[in-house]
UniProtKB/TrEMBL annotation, chain A:
InterPro entries recorded: BPD_transp_1_N, MetI-like, MetI-like_sf
Keyword set, alphabetical order: Cell membrane, Membrane, Transmembrane, Transmembrane helix, Transport
Source species, domain of life: Bacteria
Keyword Nucleotide-binding in annotation: no
Taxonomic lineage of the native organism: Bacteria, Bacillati, Actinomycetota, Actinomycetes, Kitasatosporales
Protein name: ABC transporter permease
Membrane-crossing segments per the record: 12-30, 102-123, 135-156, 176-194, 234-256, 276-302
Any one Pfam family match given in the protein's UniProt record, by short name: BPD_transp_1
Family note: Belongs to the binding-protein-dependent transport system permease family.
TrEMBL record, chain B:
Name listed for the protein in its UniProt record: ABC transporter ATP-binding protein
Membrane topology: Peripheral membrane protein
Source species of the chain: Streptomyces cavernicola
One GO MF term: ATP binding
NCBIfam families assigned to the protein according to its UniProt record, in alphabetical order: oligo_HPY
Keyword tags: ATP-binding, Cell membrane, Membrane, Nucleotide-binding, Transport
PANTHER family reported in the protein's UniProt record: DIPEPTIDE TRANSPORT ATP-BINDING PROTEIN DPPD, OLIGOPEPTIDE TRANSPORT ATP-BINDING PROTEIN APPD
InterPro entries linked: AAA+_ATPase (IPR003593), ABC_Ni/Peptide_Import (IPR050388), ABC_transporter-like_ATP-bd (IPR003439), ABC_transporter-like_CS (IPR017871), Oligopep_ABC_C (IPR013563), P-loop_NTPase (IPR027417)
């Protein structure tokens, strides 16, 4: 077990280097020049531009820029922005707590309701409630997130006035509820469907018949015998979804004006701020890798037949 | 540590019959399955009784309805598609089919327990065997987790699993096939039920282990004076442990007999066919007898006697009239207790 975790952590190093390099290169081939953008509409001064480039190390060959960046990362330095010359780390520590909060709220929402609907539909398969859940989840899956976001903002925010249409204080949990529901709704639908399929399949297993023959109450049969056997595919999905929720927040945060990582990333892309983009994506990659490791370890907790060597 | 009073677990002695009511009586039971291809009539009027301490072996090919009958008794049929249009299942004189779900649930496991064929798939793979055994005590007797575990160890010792204390937290996949089947047996025995239904308990095991498991089962049954319904297609298994046999074909009982009577002189051509198809050492080198044809499709059971297309003795009457279960008599006319045959020509079969 310990050795398995150590090996997995070591494997993260090449993945980490590979992904950061890829993002670094991609940002560099983006059209547009961030230094020239500092002059706005006015024609840039070539001599000034050369000085700024030299200050930021942008005149060096690409591989050297990347090595410098990696070296900085190892010391916890994510670099500085071109415009305003602010440390990237400061901007990220402002934005990440907001997005993590939003992401966790969305995650809880999809986990609790998704599992609930999935188990309900799986146990009552073929009944009205099963069809209801199938239709509902199909609807959620087919509606694009921005439509769902804009419509719910209009209905619940502007017309009904239940919540403020725009988030004014991004650290206020109450204001984040609606964005979190919008963000988590698509995953909720997938979790519900996965759970339903898995439950329906395992409900026909021999050990379920044994559980009934033992005279156990229905509630115990479902919670102790059925659910645990059905959770593995759902846990796999939930693990990858932690990363997806962070990245998927770009649209939702934009609609509701949440000052999170999505917004920051979007603005950085618009201004060609390479260091911010690479920094954020690097953290995403780390979250993603750790979530996957956690999922793999959870398998062994759920199913004792899975062992790590 | 809680100590468990050893004498408390012992069952009070049970008499063979309380006031003439058998422990279990199945009366004219019908079970059908509604499928896309039509209605499959899996059980078509089965009658049998089991008393305390008695072993009834139900014999038959796959699809003869022997397992479905057991599932109907246990109340674990999938309904729908299954349906019980007719019949009664009396447990100590009370019709279980008329009971509420909650009443039936309380009988399951406590009064009637079942042993399944394949213990690997019938045990939950993600729960420890100690948990699965202890669950019986926790649910039905309200014991604490700790007490239940102690009881589980005791049960494992009762079915002679070595090092029970160390193995109680192991999972089903960590046991061998024979040990797993012992755990299944232990689970069925947990609450000292009055009746155990064993659905092909040894089919998934290799021959040496088969004998051990059957001996254990028979021994425990004697010890606790339980009724046992042993469902099998293995004639060898039956001979040693059963008191009486019911042979099933296409959802009906075609012959009933005390165990040794049946082997000595079968009164139904199907039973005779089954007995003739057992490989025998003294017939080495000869071609093995086989009953020709296949069991009938349950959605289209032949008219008359269901066995007629495969029967070497079939005549016109067999294709038109369904034979009832005749009382079998000696040549002189004296009834043979407990013997019945659903064949128009039972006389010729047994005496001819």
């Amino acid at each position: 077990m310990g050795r398995y975790v150590a090996r997995r952590l070591l494997q993260m190093i090449p993945v980490f280097i590979g992904t950061t390099l890829l993002i670094f290169l991609m940002v560099n081939v983006l059209p547009g020049d961030p230094v020239a953008a500092l002059w706005g509409d006015k024609p840039p001064d070539p001599a000034q531009m050369a000085i700024i480039r030299k200050d930021l190390g942008l005149d060096l060959p690409l591989w050297q820029q990347y090595l410098n960046y990696l070296g900085g990362l190892l010391q916890g330095d994510f670099g500085t922005t071109i415009a305003g010359n602010r440390p990237v780390l400061d901007q990220m520590t402002d934005a990440f707590p907001v997005s993590i909060r939003l992401g966790l709220m969305a995650f809880t929402f999809e986990l609790v309701l998704g599992l609930f609907f999935g188990v309900l539909a799986g146990v009552k398969r073929g009944k009205v409630i099963d069809t209801g859940v199938t239709v509902f989840t199909l609807m959620v899956i087919s509606i694009p997130v921005f439509v769902l976001g804009l419509v719910s903002q209009q209905v619940f925010g502007t017309q009904l006035g239940w919540v403020s249409p725009n988030v004014k204080d991004s650290m206020d949990m109450a204001q984040l509820v609606l964005p979190a529901i919008v963000l988590g709704s698509l995953s909720l639908a997938y979790v519900a469907r996965l759970t339903r399929t898995s439950i329906a399949e395992n409900a026909r297993a021999d050990y379920m018949r044994t559980a009934v023959a033992k005279g156990l109450p229905q509630r115990r049969i479902v919670s102790m015998h059925l659910l645990r056997n059905s959770l593995i595919p759902v846990v796999t999905y939930l693990g990858t979804d932690i990363g997806a929720l962070m990245a998927g927040a770009v649209v939702t945060e934009g609609i509701f004006n949440v000052q999170g990582v999505g917004q920051l990333l979007f603005e950085a892309l618009a201004r060609r701020e390479g260091s911010i983009i690479v920094g954020i994506v690097t953290v995403f990659v780390l979250i993603y890798l750790l979530a996957n490791l956690l999922v793999d370890l959870l398998y062994a907790v759920l199913d004792p037949r899975i062992r790590y060597a | 540590m809680t100590t468990i009073d050893k004498t408390a677990g012992l069952p009070e002695p049970r008499s063979g019959r309380d006031g003439g009511t058998p422990l279990l009586e199945v009366r004219d039971l019908h079970v059908e399955f509604h499928t896309r291809d039509g209605v499959a009539k899996a059980v078509n009027g089965v009658n049998y009784t089991v008393d305390a301490g008695e072993t009834l072996a139900v014999l038959g090919e796959s699809g003869s309805g022997k397992s479905v009958t057991a599932q109907a008794i246990m109340g674990i049929l999938d309904m729908p598609p299954g349906k019980i249009p007719q019949g009664e299942i009396l447990f100590r004189g009370e019709d279980m089919l008329a009971m509420s779900n909650e009443e039936r649930r309380k009988i399951r496991g406590q009064k009637i327990a079942m042993i399944f064929q394949d213990a690997l798939s019938a045990l939950n793979p993600v729960l420890s065997v100690g948990y699965q055994l202890g669950e019986m005590f926790r649910v039905h007797q309200g014991l604490s987790k700790k007490q239940a575990k102690a009881k589980a160890v005791e049960l494992m010792e009762r079915v002679r699993i070595p090092a029970a204390k160390e193995r109680v937290n192991d999972y089903p996949h960590q046991f061998s096939g024979g040990m797993r089947q012992r755990i299944m047996i232990a689970m069925a025995l947990a609450l000292d039920p009055d009746l155990i239904i064993a659905d092909e308990p040894t089919t998934a095991l290799d021959v040496t282990v088969q004998a051990q498991v059957m001996d254990l089962l028979a021994e425990l049954q004697q010890e606790f004076n339980m009724g046992l319904i042993l469902i099998t297609h293995d004639l060898g298994v039956v001979a040693d442990v059963a008191d009486k046999i019911a042979v099933m074909y296409a959802g009906r009982i075609v012959e009933t007999a005390p165990v040794h009577e049946l082997y000595k002189r079968p009164a139904h051509p199907y039973t005779r066919g089954l007995l003739d198809s057992i490989p025998r050492l003294d017939q080495k080198g000869q071609e093995l007898y086989a009953i020709k044809g296949l069991p009938p499709n349950l959605t289209r059971i032949p008219t008359g006697c269901a066995f007629n297309p495969r029967c070497p003795k079939a005549e016109d009457i067999c294709r038109t009239e369904t034979p009832v279960l005749h009382q079998v008599t000696e040549q002189g006319g004296g009834e043979i207790a407990g013997r019945g045959s659903a064949c128009h020509f039972w006389k010729e079969t047994i005496h001819g």
